[in-house]
UniProtKB/TrEMBL annotation, chain A:
This is 1,2-phenylacetyl-CoA epoxidase subunit B.
TrEMBL record, chain B:
This is 1,2-phenylacetyl-CoA epoxidase subunit A. One of its GO terms (biological process) is phenylacetate catabolic process. SUPFAM superfamilies: Ferritin-like. It comes from the Bacteria. It comes from Micromonospora radicis. Gene3D superfamilies: 1.20.1260.10. GO terms for molecular function: phenylacetyl-CoA 1,2-epoxidase activity. Pfam families: PaaA_PaaC. PANTHER family: 1,2-PHENYLACETYL-COA EPOXIDASE, SUBUNIT A, PHENYLACETIC ACID DEGRADATION PROTEIN PAA. GO terms for cellular component: cytosol.
Length: 96, 351
């Protein structure tokens, strides 16, 4: 976070409509959560982009590192049996 | 994130269509993601491969130091321009000729503030804080667009800014929607969509004036006369004198040269001016059958250099205003921080 007298950084997530997930739309500076929410309303939903906003202090987010991407995400690739397409279905079986 | 309501209104063609295409490209590029560099892979080679494949560089990826510096400079100056750019138009908010025009102008200036914030946020992903960037602007070590150092003398200037200045900005920014740096490309997509509203509202102001009384018509023509060349100068020095161009093109930060974009802008404006019934103040402007483009008189680049170096009509006024707002607002920022600290300490005490 930045130097003295300045406000912390917040990450903003907006849900466009009911049924959709919140999507990260950007970030902004604000002294507290209340103002972050109001600023996010003005900044990211001026044109009916959303119906729900989450603001999270950027410092509260822990991100995976691109360097460890392969090692970190590998299990999905070597456990093919996790995918339904791994299994053979005999001919003529319906609704499976 | 944009409501379908807007895109659907009239099928996007032209510049807006290009923005949509850039957005679609962003998604395709993401699907082609080749994953992280292997343990043996050279980081610089990986960076080049990603850029060459039209994929996006993201904040935590390795990047050449000069790429990072160039982007910080470009994005920050872009952000500063949005912030300083609120002044020439803000000058007319209290004097807008009708409530409708006033409401539109307010919405537009609010957008500019938003664009500034999107861009500062994009710059911050490169490891510099917004406070540092603001400090660089206030101390004069970073610049903003030359165009905002020109005064808004009449209401028609608000129209000319929308049509020409925002128009030039869009021509410049649409290719940036394809920039190799992901956060910048995404910010530009968002900005361009909103900028398009600005350009159209400006055009409508001029169109109304140009078809009004003879005094209104004269005011519109006068605004075009004064803003035409400064708008052409917005594209920067001619290709031969542009210092950052070659490297920026290789890194796919820039996609077209200054002169290419300027030409594109002129070609667009000629037809639009005809519909307005106004005359572009260039006696040598004419269609060149061979080039399939308009020949035109170049802006005064010596003037551009003077304005960039701080000696334009309004440079001092713009900076003084910005500094005053920053200094006079210090106690408000301190109060907000103190209040936030107090609220946070209250929450920690169990009740």
């Amino acid at each position: 976070m930045s130097s003295s007298g300045s406000s912390p950084l917040w990450e903003v997530f907006v849900r466009a409509r009911r049924g959709l997930a919140h999507t990260h739309v950007g970030s902004l500076h604000a002294p507290d959560a209340e103002l972050a929410l109001r600023n996010a309303r003005d900044l990211y939903t001026r044109r009916q982009e959303g119906v729900s906003i989450w603001v999270v202090p950027a410092g509260a987010i822990t991100a995976s590192s691109p360097d460890e991407k392969d090692a970190f995400f590998d299990p999905a690739a070597d456990k093919v049996y996790r995918h339904p397409t791994f299994y053979d279905v005999p001919d003529g079986v319906a609704h499976l | 994130m944009y409501g379908n309501d807007f895109a659907g209104e009239d099928a996007p063609g032209g510049l807006l269509g290009e923005v949509e295409a850039a957005e679609a490209e962003l998604r395709t590029a993401a699907e082609r993601d080749r994953g992280a560099p292997g343990p043996e892979e050279d980081l610089a080679a990986y960076f080049t491969a990603v850029v060459d494949a039209d994929q996006k560089i993201e904040p935590r990826d390795w990047m050449p130091e000069a790429y990072r510096r160039t982007l910080i400079r470009q994005i920050a100056q872009h952000a500063h321009s949005e912030i300083i750019g609120m002044q020439p138009e803000g000058n007319w908010i209290s004097r807008a000729p009708s409530l409708k025009r006033k409401a539109i102008l307010l919405a537009k200036v609010q957008d500019e503030a938003g664009h500034g914030l999107y861009l500062y946020a994009a710059a911050e992903t490169l490891g510099i804080s917004r406070d540092e960037l603001v400090e660089l602007l206030l101390s004069g070590r970073q610049k903003y667009s030359s165009i905002f150092n020109y005064p808004t003398l009449t209401w028609a200037d608000v129209g000319a800014i929308g049509w020409l200045v925002d128009g030039a900005a869009i021509v410049n920014q649409v290719p940036l929607c394809r920039c190799s740096y992901g956060p910048y490309a995404r910010a530009m997509i968002r900005v361009c969509k909103e900028e398009s509203f600005h350009q159209r509202q400006g055009y409508e102001i001029l169109h109304t004036l140009a078809h009004g009384t003879s005094a209104q018509r004269a005011m519109a023509q006068d605004a075009l006369d004064r803003w035409w060349y400064p708008s052409l100068a917005m594209f920067g020095p001619p290709d031969g004198d542009s210092t950052h161009s070659a490297q920026s093109m290789a890194w796919k930060i820039k996609r077209f040269s200054n002169d290419d974009l300027r030409q594109r802008f002129v070609d667009m404006c000629v037809g639009q001016a005809e519909v307005l019934g106004l005359t572009i103040p260039d006696p040598d402007l004419r269609w060149n059958e061979q080039r399939q483009a308009y020949d035109f008189t170049q802006p005064d680049y010596a003037e551009l250099m003077r304005v960039i170096s701080g000696d334009g009509p309004c440079n001092r006024e713009r900076m003084a205003h910005r500094r005053r707002a920053h200094e006079a607002g210090a106690w408000v920022r301190e109060a907000a921080a103190a209040y936030a600290a107090k609220q946070a300490s209250k929450e920690k005490v169990p009740t």
